[in-house]
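Service request form, structural biology core

Requester: graduate student, group of Dr. S.
Request type: structure prediction, single chain
Budget code: on file
Notes: please return the result as structure tokens.

Sequence provided:
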Amino acid sequence: MEERKEEICESSEIHEDLLKIVNETLPEETELYDLAELFKVFGDSTRIRILYVLFEAEVCVCDLAKALNMTQSAISHQLKILKQNKLVKNRREGKSIFYSLADDHVRTIINQGREHIEED
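Core staff response, request fulfilled:
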């Protein structure tokens, strides 16, 4: 059985110049928390599937449910989470509500993630 080594420093030398840079550039704790929460939203494959549909067109809940073979209720629940996190927006037209990507950042985040997982 292979022995696992801990990833620790062998000496306790503190690099003050590097720590100064880190302390000056590290975002506030609340911003780090918000960023982590945003990435949790991308941690659900159903939400990713919804976003992929919205890459192509603005659609209503009925169309999304049909395209993804899910119930309107399940889609609605996921859209609420996406909307709360400012990833999608909606507009009412008569009795229908149409959803679309909130902005191009959403597409960029997904595309960057895909590029990362496809690297060798």
